[in-house]
Amino acid sequence: MTTNGSPRRTPLYPIHVKLGARIIDFHGWEMPVQYSGIREEHFAVREKAGIFDVCHMGTVGIKGKNALKMVQKVYTGDASPMREGDIHYGLLCNENGGIIDDVTLFKVSEENYFFCVNASNVSKDYEWLKSAIGNDAEVINESETGGIIALQGPLADDILSGVSEGIDLKSIKTFKFDYGRVAGVNAIISRTGYTGERGFEFFFEREKALLIWEEIFKAGVGMGLKPAGLGARDTLRLEMKYTLYGNDIGDSVSPLEACLERYISFDKGDFIGHDALLKEKESGSKRRLAGFRMIDLGIPRQGFEIMIDGMVIGYVTSGGHSFSTENNIGMALVDTKHSVVGTQFFVSVRGKELKAEVVETPFYKRKK
After folding, report:
1. Could you report the per-residue pLDDT of 113-123, keeping only the tens digit for each?
2. Homologous superfamily of 58-141 in CATH?
């Protein structure tokens, strides 16, 4: 990887070049946006399987006898019921209730937890956690030494079974993890996902990334496995109304506005952002993140204004074409009264006001 200010590269960069991927700068990382095409990669994940390089994401460990106490301080969820091998999704918030990052929390042991954090926020999260926790627990940025690969899709279990050992894959339920070997490499194997499909993530020593990718790909190519880039990741997560940091959520957006209130545990006691979020809960949020479908022909994009009667009532946070439903869809942060399912408004697309309607989400539901 580069360290002189130019874009960084994951250990899988040579694979992406070899496969002819189109590379873009993604928050300072040279990452594949697509290989064979976004639509083809999207349907590979929905119908068979896709493999993703997520080595750009980070992990930050919280360790020591006060680990749980400190996790409770910085995390909106309640980690106290977690058992070893549990994963919880939740948020890190600032004092004003804005979202510093959305994270997954892994419990390794009573004195060992780690957060999986977004690539764009690794340094920010690490520094914030160190500041918030101080000397009460050890905060370790493990991002430089670890690697992460995701395997997603209905055939993910079948593919992984051919290259894994020392673990019963069926025993790993959603938002659980266990230990095993993938391509002979010791790894944490988790099941969370960002696509709406069944699948796995593997956490391992960074220098083993090429070996693991190549062995998984060799095992799955005959089953229709395809490499998938950031483009397919975005269309897949949008269909599920999964938020993306920097688009749908950020420091100026609260979990309540983002419809993530179920990940706030007010009853557990104080945590950073508690008072601001409780006040907002009691008074009501002025904005809400709504999912919408275009009625008129046009594709909504981030930043496009949302209009009613000539007045701006919000803006698009994410948008695009849904390959699975063949609709143009999006998410928008709008005045709360206009976030109700069935509400119609207009999206300003290159000077034209195109009609859209708030709909129930997720836009896509996985086949049983």
Report:
1. 999 999 999 99
2. Aminomethyltransferase beta-barrel domains (3.30.70.1400)
